[in-house]
Amino acid sequence: MKAPLIPVNETERMNALRESGLLEIDNYPAFDRLTRLATRFFRVPLAMITLVDDHAAIVKSADGQVPATQPRDLSFCGHTILGDAPLVVSDTLLDERFADNPQVVGDPGVRFYAGFPLRLRDGACVGSLCLIDYAPREFTAADVAVLADLSALAEDEFAAVSAATTDELTGLFNRRGFNQFAQFALSVSQRRAEPLTLGWLDLDHFKTINDRFGHQEGDKALKAMAALMRSSFREADLLVRFGGDEFAVLFADTDEPGAWIAMQYLVEQTEKYNARQLHPWSLQFSWGLSEFDHHRNDMQAWLKHADAQMYAMKRQHHGEK
To answer: pTM above the 0.90 mark?
Structure first.
């Protein structure tokens, strides 16, 4: 077996994938329509739209049975993103890259693979639309053309997701929205010589909520956190779900002591919410603050400092030293 190579532009590719917003979305109906069309047209038991991140191939849609993730070094799609052309393997046992792959010699027994690389508008190759069969089969030039057409539709949906600036679940700004508006806010604060402070929040024990009570309850927790942020902060503050259980708030014309007072108010409102016992879980979060220094900071250093402050509190919450 040959593990897929790492693209020469891997850092830029991963930055583009993270900025796209694709990693954060779940249950996207347009992707599901495409994978259903693929299984029916090609008469295969499995069709997937996957994203390839640092360590895994992440299944964003599947028509057929498949784990939600698989190790990148075992994935077929990790090979697909390395080229511009589709990767077609008519019989995996005859291909030295895959003949002894655990997915071929063990369960589920993959014998045929066809994957088309999926790109963002900037050209970064971030995943694939692929077909799986458990018996060898031929794939004609006409088949490749149809797969290319379906892949073009998937890329259109990628572009639609990447253009959006709002998180679908919570209604807050998403990572892309934050990046766009934060640059604007920094420019305004510098021209007006006004302070600008970033608050970084991370839910504590969120994985436990998902594991014990299910992902629907996890979604309710995220929505509840977003609602508390809306009711606790000013309309002028930029509220963000940065991804997963990470949130941020950009306090306009506010120094770090002023932002600290605002965050303490959010803590109080969260405690009152928990006291109502509306759910089998309670909301807890760690947070950190960082005021932008126009003479020393850039965007990444600012984010990194706020994140470090948040993790310092998280270690305290978990009793770490």
So the answer is: no
